[in-house]
Write a structure and sequence with these properties.
The chain folds into three domains: about 110 residues, Immunoglobulin-like, CATH 2.60.40; about 30 residues; about 45 residues, no CATH class. About 50% of the residues lie in helices and about 20% in strands. The chain contains six helices and eleven strands. The strands form three sheets. The chain has a six-stranded antiparallel beta sheet with strand order 3-2-5-7-8-9, with no helix packed on it. Strand 7 and strand 8 form a beta hairpin. It is elongated and about 100 Å long. Its main location: membrane. It is found in: Membrane. This is ER membrane protein complex subunit 7 beta-sandwich domain-containing protein.
Length: about 250
């Protein structure tokens, strides 16, 4: 039992002798000139495994830090500080302080060595408030909903002019289709399936007629283009023959 107590006391003594009190201070600048501006701030190692408070003079101390490699960061509400890596190897020697970038290895060869005690400098201030946006006429017109409304209004204004320039037969077709669709719906609603079926067949025949007319018009246009292209070489050939004949007559 005494031997176990002796081992416990020995382990406590060895751990305390191997521990290190990490010290440093905050370097005030124009961004953060004093402690009142900084406010209550804490310095932590590895997500608050070890921690220490910053005093009014800007100094801080993290006691009883065991040997190992840590990331030192500052928890501040209003200001952002750079993170540094701290390599504690022995309590008799000062720790190795190097610059640290989030996502890089702790033992990176590209890190820059920094002096000890640790010097922390505020880099920029957090801004939690966003100013209210003022009225912007151009921004309002860039809204997709406003653009859709404007296009709809332009179509409504321009529809009467488009209707005036359309063919009367083309204008009658939609009204006839709407009447037929209404007849189909009324017949189906009244239970007259036979007349509704006949109206559906009529609608299909009208649609087929329209498609056949369009195909016929397209075929006629293609034939006219082909005939015009085929006639050009003949005209050129006749003109060449006339020129040759004229040259022969001149030689004679």
């Amino acid at each position: 039992m005494n031997f176990v107590r002796f081992l416990g006391i020995l382990s406590i003594l060895t751990s305390t002798t191997l521990c290190l009190d990490l010290v440093g201070h905050v370097q005030w600048n124009d961004l953060c000139p004093d402690y009142e501006t900084l406010g209550p701030t804490k310095v932590i190692l590895d997500k608050a495994r070890y921690s220490g408070r910053i005093t009014r003079g800007g100094n801080f101390s993290i006691p009883d830090v065991n040997s190992g490699i840590y990331v030192l960061s500052v928890l501040s509400h209003d200001y952002v500080f750079d993170q540094v890596s701290v390599d504690v190897s022995d309590s008799s020697q000062p720790p190795d302080i190097k610059s640290y970038i989030v996502g890089t290895p702790l033992t990176s060869s590209a890190s820059v060595s920094l002096p000890y005690p640790v010097v922390l400098t505020p880099r920029h201030k957090n801004n939690y408030f966003k100013p209210r946006e003022s009225f912007n006429l151009l921004g309002m017109f860039q809204n997709p909903m406003i653009m859709i409304m404007m296009l709809t209004g332009l179509m409504m204004l321009g529809m009467p002019y488009i209707m005036k320039n359309m063919d009367p037969q083309t204008l009658e077709e939609p009204s006839g289709q709407q009447a037929q669709i209404a007849n189909v719906q009324n017949s189906l609603h009244n239970g007259d399936i036979k007349s509704g079926y006949v109206d559906v067949i009529l609608l299909n025949t009208h649609a087929e007629l329209r498609t056949s007319r369009l195909s016929a018009l397209l075929a006629a246009e293609e034939e006219s283009k082909a005939s015009a292209v085929g006639a050009r070489p003949l005209v050129n050939g006749s003109t060449m023959q006339q020129r040759k004949g004229g040259k022969g007559n001149r030689r004679r």
